[in-house]
Write a structure and sequence with these properties.
By secondary structure, this protein is mostly helical. It is built from five helices and no strands. The chain has helices spanning 19-24, 28-40, 54-58, 61-81, 83-112. It holds the Pfam family NDUF_B6.
Length: 163
């Protein structure tokens, strides 16, 4: 659901948010409203209010579980690095960890999930013949496949069953 609950968002600053609009001219009511609005933008000494660790109590337990290792590490590093830098490093470390797990997963899938004669699924890597033009060495191109059984072999000839 949208943050505005389906209502088109409008700016609270109104027409006079733009300097160009203010230069065109403002009524006395607009000047008074803008003066109040600018005064409201000044924070009081007790703002912003920091609510200590409220999200940790209320979040999903699965999320708390997978965030726990980096939370513990960066809670100990926060006094050394500072709160903002520790939060940035925690975010970057988490993302790099997810990328590393993804790369390792893809590597595992391609290494052990290849398509050969023993299974129906998996990635099948097919190489096309190289482009050899007249006048280049290797023209005309001679295929490595010499018999009909070389086509659609999918590694069967290299298996221990054939040898």
């Amino acid at each position: 659901m949208a943050q505005t609950a389906g209502v088109k968002p409008m700016t609270i600053a109104g027409r006079v948010a733009s300097e160009r609009e203010r230069c065109i001219g403002m009524t006395d009511a607009e000047r008074e409203w803008r003066k109040k609005w600018l005064k409201d933008q000044i924070l009081s000494p007790n703002e912003p209010v920091h609510v200590e660790e409220y999200w940790k109590e209320r979040t999903n337990p699965i999320r708390r579980f997978y965030r726990k290792p980096l939370d513990v590490l960066f809670d100990k590093l926060t006094p050394v690095l500072g709160a903002n830098r520790a939060a940035d490093y925690r975010y970057i470390t988490g993302k790099l960890g997810l990328i590393a797990v993804g790369v390792l997963g893809i590597h595992y899938y391609f290494k052990y999930g290849g398509n050969d004669w023993t299974k129906k699924g998996g990635w099948r890597v097919v190489t096309s013949k190289p482009m050899v033009l007249p006048g280049q060495p290797g023209f005309p191109f001679k295929s490595e496949r010499t018999s009909d059984s070389d086509y659609a072999d999918r590694g069967f000839k290299n298996s221990v069953l054939v040898k």
